[in-house]
Design a protein that fits this description.
Structural class: mainly alpha
Helix content: over 70%
Strand order of the largest sheet: 1-2
CATH topology of the largest domain: Growth Hormone, Chain: A
CATH class of the largest domain: Mainly Alpha
Number of helices: 19
Largest sheet: 2 strands, antiparallel
Order of helices and strands: EEHHHHHHHHHHHHHHHHHHH
Distance between the termini: 38 Å
Number of strands: 2
Length: 433
């Protein structure tokens, strides 16, 4: 059978043939899932003001539901990898869709803080981890080898497209019908669009008699990647063996630092810009345009990573955050539009490209049947970093009255992340055979 034609068996006779590699259909499914799923979590920032206006709860308690979602996500992540290794991605992603959709529907009934933490915190925060970056990386990396960076970057660029389509729509619903209707509408969208779509998921090309990339994939590109393969171990890699390696520890450090900077900047950027004199509408547009600029940046740099190496693109992404933070530090002295757009482009087009290789690096470092469990464990460090960044940035502002310390710390973390990725992937592990 031609590898460019995906054949799905429905019974002993009926077949559906596609004139293209089935992996690209999965990329399209992931694109839509990311566009809706990730932005359904991001919608918390739009729901927060009207919830505060209605209940007059303490701001820390109310916003803490978002951080609680990160905590749940950190607990769930290793289980996501373990379950994907054993049951495949369809069950995992569909469970995430059900959790997230249910959480949004239940959010429309909120009357007490614990209900906020259960719905928008635990269910949405836990569900997004199953259906978003972690869940998608675990199976897409099996379908592509030579075009892995390109495939993942296209899939994850759906987040940027969703941010400029779904979030404005949701804001209009909130303004016109209230936040409860918005939660209900978004929950129905998640369930109606993503539940049937993700029934198409398959864990590996071999399930359909195919090979990674398809027959027309160009050969030899994998030789250009710079990740040195980890030494093979008897029986294959396990989480326990991976945890014993310096490679795993360097990757975990790199991911922690990268997500620390990502969310420290993302969460506090809008407030910072308004404090130094920018109009709130301009500050809000700047945040939205970051995700828009991320779309071409992710695709271009993900594709480039297939040729020059994942580590180079990871370093470029961290460099984007260094430049963005440096510009943010310079803005109080010169709060001009050109400097602001420089920060936006650096953060979006360069910094957000980290997602295009985030799944590929562990996949090429710890290959084998337990990759999902290992990747899930690495992502615990990333999620902890993502939770710590906003808190540290806020605490440093309370302490110093300025975000300067937070941005300098973010620059330092980005540099550490870039260095750590090279230390973790530059040479094979030894002594575990």
């Amino acid at each position: 059978m031609n590898n460019n034609t995906a054949t799905l068996r429905k019974g002993p006779v009926n077949r559906i043939r596609l004139p293209f590699f089935y992996g690209w259909l999965l990329v399209a499914v992931s694109f839509v899932t990311m566009a809706i799923g990730v932005n359904a979590r991001t919608a918390f920032s739009l729901l927060l003001p009207p919830i505060l206006d209605e209940f007059h709860w303490d701001r820390g308690i109310t916003a803490g539901a978002f951080s609680f979602g990160f905590l749940i996500s950190a607990i769930v992540t290793p289980l996501v990898g373990w379950l994907t290794d054993r049951r495949g991605p369809r069950l995992v992603v569909e469970t995430g869709v059900l959790l997230m959709g249910s959480g949004l529907l239940l959010a429309s009934l909120i009357r007490e803080p614990w209900q906020l933490y259960l719905s928008l915190g635990a269910l949405v925060g836990g569900g997004v981890n199953l259906l978003a970056y972690t869940g998608q990386s675990l199976y897409l990396t099996n379908w592509f080898v030579e075009r892995r960076g390109l495939a993942l970057s296209i899939a994850f660029s759906g987040v940027g497209v969703g941010s400029v389509t779904i979030l404005p729509w949701l804001q209009n619903v909130i303004a016109g019908s209230g936040w409860r209707t918005a939660c209900w509408s978004l929950g129905l969208l998640v369930l109606a669009a993503l539940a049937p779509l993700n029934l198409l998921l398959r864990g590996k090309p071999s399930e359909l008699g195919l090979t990674p990339d398809g027959a027309s994939a160009r050969r030899g590109l994998s030789a250009t990647r710079r990740i040195a393969p980890a030494s093979l171990v008897s029986g294959g890699w396990t989480v326990g063996l991976a945890l014993r390696t310096s490679r795993f520890r360097w990757l975990a450090l790199s991911y922690f630092c990268a997500l620390f900077t990502w969310y420290a900047v993302q969460v506090h950027q809008t407030k910072y810009l308004t404090e130094i004199g920018f109009d709130p509408k301009i500050a809000a547009w700047a945040l939205g345009l970051v995700s828009l600029f991320a779309v071409p940046g992710q695709i271009a740099l993900g594709h480039l990573s297939d040729r020059i190496g994942r580590e180079w693109v990871w370093s470029i992404g961290n460099g984007g955050f260094v430049l963005s933070c440096a510009v943010l530090l310079a803005l109080p002295a010169d709060p001009s539009a050109p400097l602001l757009w420089m920060a936006v482009v650096a953060q979006g087009a360069l910094g957000y490209s980290l997602t295009s290789v985030m799944g590929a690096i562990p996949a090429e470092s710890f290959t084998g049947r337990n990759y999902g469990s290992i990747f899930g464990t690495v992502m615990v460090a990333a999620i902890i970093g993502g939770a710590a960044g906003p808190w540290v940035a806020g605490a440093s502002h309370d302490w110093t009255g300025s975000y300067s310390l937070a941005f300098w710390l973010s620059i330092w973390c980005s540099v550490v992340s870039a260095v750590a990725i090279w230390r973790g992937t530059s040479r094979p592990e030894r002594g575990l055979e």
